[in-house]
């Protein structure tokens, strides 16, 4: 009996560690900044602002995006698009595999959701309320354009709005205004911002790349206009970029930035560079690079950069600035290379990162053992030893041929930068903009533990659970793995060969099982060491552990239960929101003071905005005047050109008309001549007939006057016709036959 209990406890502990590892997986979805028009700032989860070009910059939980007046921006996660108009600020409260929670502090946002599977996890909150979607479509939210006011406009689809102590459905073509404790409804009105968003959506609807990759692959919409597709029998669909040089290689034009918890993350400079940099693999076919997305999956897993690393302290190279020293290089992974994450993942998450086509995992069935590494780019190692953005295009990089890196040592990742105190994928608290500082408003919930007005606590390391690092291993290709300088902080790898797991760091959470009364393990002790002391207590909790294990397995295998859990959290949030609103109503005096302070600061802000608007308006009017002058000049030139063209057309038409009249006159004259000739011929023919008739009458009268004597040769009548009137032999024969018929006796 005791042995069975030990086995059950050991099994529960192993399942707890496995479940905890899966719970610690980083999010498989990371959004990207897809449009930057004007002054746009991006504040990362750690509080730092991203510098330089923000195109393709990763967006995850805790990221804040702010668009200055007159600017516009857009970020996407899969097929979902979020757009901000000028003078707007939005924070991504939570973004993971199933949840997208946004908070619009002020400004205007346009959101479109195409995939029905993403409806249950979507939520957009404002200081006055919360919006969810029940049908795919698009909506626009304007908040704080007027004090304490949010306006929700449903452009397509359907949703639900919670605010002012009530919850109401909203259909397409309707709008709802939340002003304090009052709600007003009306007819939706489109704006130029909506037209701009609709034009962007129309391009997505006509995308041809959706035939080769899933629409949930972030960045797929840029592939159509920047490259071409082809089919390959070995790799399936292949995509080649247009407009790249012969020396170009993937992961060579862009920047490296540190992003928790993934580590060094690639930000490509090309507009199309997001999807090929974070999904699929690259192949070098017929002296050209092609991106191979592999088999189509519904929800592909995102990776910071699908590259292999070479270098170390013992590998020195000479760079373009003629300086020699330790270098760190990277090369694009092919389907025959294994991707080894440098961050903590579970076996299941690592399986999702594998490249497959035709049911084959190439790195397992056809591993690369020749040591060839195409497209290697090298930078000095020191650039990766400080927490800053590494701009590859501006640094003294070099590109090494494949033959020069065959003996270069492989490393799992460049040097590790110290981590922050939070991880994306979990709800975190970041510094808000000035509009929130004085208002002291928050979401009212954390989305995890359901506590009102609090954030989910970051898991603390469990004492005694630190595992020792495994010995150095040999990676495919024969090159040894060089340990990262300084060790790996808070990261671990799970390997599949031999089911051996190399875990570094500490477990940061516990398995979500029912509370265990009286069970208090001592620091540094394992569950096996507490068996004899707590046997009675563990027997009573055995069925509870089994039930927790079954629930955990069902949660991992069925997404439906996860959606139900989210619905329960949403209902709990609604209950807490109502309780919070009731408490706020009881504190009217404190709210009145805050409102007065808000009005004062709002007046200051409006005055600043007015001055800024006047300056912007003056600049805009000057630009409009210049544009109007240019437009008028262009119109004048266009009118002159049109008048000249009209004159030429008129002259051409007059010439054609005169030519037609001349031809018509010639035709009329020809017809008149033909008619005159025809009449003349008819007149001549009539004369000939009359002459023949006269001659016939004369011949008929002649036999009656002369006696019937021997006839001699008849003289030809003196008035016989001549020329054209002269009779021919045929006519004479006819006259003889006529006479013979009349005088048969002759």
Summarize the structure.
The protein has 746 residues and is α+β, with helices and mostly antiparallel strands.
How many strand units?
Answer: 31
When the domains are counted, the total is 4
Number of helices: 11
Unreliable spans are 17-21, 418-529
Strand content: 15-25%
Global Rg: 45 Å
Dominant shape: elongated
The overall pLDDT, averaged over residues, is: 76
- Characterize the main sheet: 14 strands, mixed
Label the structural class.
alpha+beta
- Helix content class: 25-40%
C-alpha termini separation: 162 Å
Structural overview:
The chain is α+β, with helices and mostly antiparallel strands and 746 residues long. The protein folds into 4 domains: 82 residues, no CATH class; 180 residues, Jelly Rolls (Sandwich), CATH 2.60.120; 262 residues, no CATH class; 50 residues. The protein is built from 11 helices and 31 strands. The strands form 7 sheets. Strands 1, 2, 3, 4, 5, 6, 7, 8, 9, 10, 11, 12, 13 and 14 form a 14-stranded mixed β-sheet that branches. It has a 6-stranded mixed β-sheet with strand order 27-25-22-21-28-29, with no helix packed on it. The chain has a 3-stranded antiparallel β-sheet with strand order 18-17-26. Helix 1 packs parallel to helix 8 and helix 8 crosses helix 9. The longest helix has 118 residues. It starts with a helix and ends with a helix. The relative contact order is 0.08.
């Amino acid at each position: 009996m005791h042995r069975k209990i030990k086995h059950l406890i050991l099994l529960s502990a192993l399942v707890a560690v496995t479940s905890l590892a899966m719970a610690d997986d980083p999010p498989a979805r990371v959004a990207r900044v897809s449009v930057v028009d004007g002054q746009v700032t991006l504040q990362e989860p750690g509080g730092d602002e991203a510098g330089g070009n923000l195109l393709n910059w990763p967006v995850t939980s805790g990221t804040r995006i702010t668009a200055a007046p007159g600017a516009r921006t857009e970020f996407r996660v899969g097929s979902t698009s979020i757009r901000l108009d000028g003078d707007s600020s939005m924070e991504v409260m939570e973004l993971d595999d199933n949840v997208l929670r946004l908070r619009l502090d002020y400004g205007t946002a346009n959101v479109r959701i195409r995939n029905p599977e993403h409806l249950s996890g979507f939520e957009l909150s404002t200081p006055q309320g919360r919006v969810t979607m029940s049908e795919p479509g698009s909506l626009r939210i304007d908040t704080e354009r007027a004090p304490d006011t949010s306006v929700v406009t449903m452009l397509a689809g359907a949703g639900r709005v919670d605010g002012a102590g009530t919850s109401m459905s909203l259909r397409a073509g309707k709008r709802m205004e939340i002003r304090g404790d009052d709600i007003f409804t009306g007819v939706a009105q489109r704006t130029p911002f909506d037209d701009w968003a609709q034009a962007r959506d129309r391009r997505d609807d006509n995308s041809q790349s959706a035939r080769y990759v899933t629409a949930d692959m972030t960045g797929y919409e840029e592939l159509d206009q920047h490259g071409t597709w082809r089919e390959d029998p070995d790799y399936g669909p292949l995509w080649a970029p247009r407009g790249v040089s012969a020396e170009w290689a993937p992961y060579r034009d862009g920047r490296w930035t540190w992003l928790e918890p993934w580590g060094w993350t690639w930000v490509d400079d090309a507009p199309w560079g997001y999807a090929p940099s974070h999904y699929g693999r690259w192949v070098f076919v017929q002296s050209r690079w092609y991106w191979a997305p592999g088999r189509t999956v519904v929800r592909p897993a995102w990776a910071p950069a699908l590259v292999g690393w070479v270098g170390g302290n013992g590998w020195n190279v000479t760079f373009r600035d003629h300086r020699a020293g330790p270098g760190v290089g990277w090369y694009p992974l092919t389907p025959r290379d294994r991707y080894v994450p440098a961050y903590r993942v579970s076996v299941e998450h690592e399986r999702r990162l594998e490249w497959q086509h035709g049911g084959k995992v190439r790195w397992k069935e056809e591993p690369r053992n020749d040591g060839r590494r195409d497209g290697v780019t090298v930078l000095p190692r020191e650039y990766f030893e400080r927490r800053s953005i590494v701009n590859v295009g501006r640094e003294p990089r070099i590109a090494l041929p494949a033959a020069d890196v065959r003996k270069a040592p492989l490393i799992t990742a460049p040097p590790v930068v110290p981590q922050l105190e939070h991880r994306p994928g979990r709800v975190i608290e970041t510094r808000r903009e000035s509009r929130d500082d004085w208002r002291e408003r928050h979401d009212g919930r954390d989305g995890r533990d359901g506590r009102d007005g609090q954030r989910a606590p970051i898991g603390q390391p469990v004492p005694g659970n630190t595992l020792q690092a495994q010995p150095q291993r040999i990676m495919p290709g024969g090159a040894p793995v060089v340990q990262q300088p300084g060790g790996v902080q808070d990261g671990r790898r799970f390997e599949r060969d031999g089911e051996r797991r190399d875990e570094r760091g500490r477990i940061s959470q516990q398995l979500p099982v029912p509370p265990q009364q009286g069970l208090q393990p001592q620091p540094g002790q394992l569950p096996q060491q507490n068996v004899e002391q707590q046997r009675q207590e563990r027997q009573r909790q055995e069925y509870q552990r089994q039930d927790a294990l079954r629930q955990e397995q069902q949660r991992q295998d069925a997404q439906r239960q996860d959606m139900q859990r989210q619905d329960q959290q949403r209902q709990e949030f609604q209950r807490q929101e109502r309780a919070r609103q009731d408490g706020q109503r009881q504190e009217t005096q404190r709210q009145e003071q805050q409102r007065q302070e808000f009005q004062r600061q709002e007046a200051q802000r409006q005055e600043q905005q007015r001055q800024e608007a006047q300056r912007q308006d003056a600049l805009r009017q000057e630009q409009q005047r210049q544009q109007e002058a240019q437009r008028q000049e262009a119109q004048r030139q266009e009118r002159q050109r049109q008048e000249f063209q009209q004159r030429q057309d008129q002259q051409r038409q007059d010439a054609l008309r005169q030519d037609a009249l001349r031809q018509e006159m010639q035709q009329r004259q020809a017809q008149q001549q033909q008619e005159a000739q025809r009449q003349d011929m008819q007149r001549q023919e009539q004369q000939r007939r009359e002459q023949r008739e006269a001659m016939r009458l004369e011949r008929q009268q002649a036999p009656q006057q002369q006696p019937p004597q021997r006839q001699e040769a008849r003289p030809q009548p003196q008035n016989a016709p001549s020329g054209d009137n002269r009779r021919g032999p045929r006519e004479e024969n006819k006259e003889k036959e006529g006479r013979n018929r009349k005088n048969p006796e002759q």
